Amino acid sequence: MLTWVRRGGLSTLLFLLPLVVVFGVFSWFPIVRAAVMSVQHTNLVTAPTFVGWKNFATVFADPLLWTAVRNTGYFALIALVFGYPIPLVAAVLMSEVRRWRGLYSALAYLPVVVPPVVAVLMWKVFYDPRPEGVFNTVLGWFGIPPQAWLQSADSAMPALVLEATWAAAGGTVIIYLAALLAVPPELYDAAEVDGASIWRKVWHVTLPQLRPILLITLILQVIGTAQVFLEPFLFTDGGPAHSTLTVLLLIYDYAFGSSLGGDYGAATALSLILAAFLALLSAVYFWLTRSWSTS
Predict the structure, then answer these.
(1) How far apart are the C-alpha atoms of 207 and 212, rounded to whole Å?
(2) Is the pTM of this model over 0.90?
(3) Which of 40, 76, 174, 287 could serve as a FRET partner for 83 with CA atoms 20 to 30 Å apart?
(4) Which parts of the chain fold into alpha helices (H)?
(5) 51 to each of 37, 56, 217, 264, how far by Cα in Å?
(6) pLDDT by residue (tens digit) across 137-172?
(7) From CA 164, how far away is CA 158, in angstroms rounded?
């Protein structure tokens, strides 16, 4: 013990104590509090009563749960198919540009600077279903009839994915650009000597060098899309016909859907189910890809 103190262990502990306290109060205490509330019936006003697993049974018995899970999975799938490759393609193209690269990087990152609520309200105007709406006017130039956008159950979710991709892609583009700077230039020089085209250089040099970053951004995107809330809440409030109801929006409805006090027990129970699913998914993902990220 005295040796530990002489080596600076006590001073290190005192230095870390404020950070540990702040992290515990604002990060771990809410998690513990949510776990306690998930087995209680409470409206945060009256005294809570213990109900055991009843809140979890209520959540699993709710037919809207499976609608929300399906919609969340649909959102994640579309965002993965269309939203995941776009930042990578944009970063590779910008890395090949010799002039105005800084300007292109700033323009790519600009949507991230726009406050999310402002961006959603702006796109809501763009999605005006009338023929004179912004997007419908552009479609009219090519002879395409006006679209219902957010008013149609078929097009509402893809419309949300389009805005979410525009809003978030800039940050990933900057990450990829920074990673591309770390790729040894001699690898590209060797590829050019062998007569490789730009696409062969991307496939055989760029992608293998970016493999760890690609694996990290993939799981981060999956986790982010599984927690999508802002777009369905502000664009459609889960409609039309629950076609954009997501898991996080269902949690919000459980907790705040009633002005007299929501079902906070069911809300925290569903929150823990989502957290456990994402933790399990992340563990399985990193276990399956642990060799890919280093080979």
Answers:
(1) 10
(2) no
(3) 287
(4) 2-6, 9-23, 29-37, 54-61, 63-78, 85-96, 101-113, 116-126, 134-141, 156-181, 185-193, 198-201, 207-209, 211-226, 230-235, 247-256, 264-288
(5) 10, 10, 40, 12
(6) 999 999 999 999 999 999 999 999 999 999 988 888
(7) 10
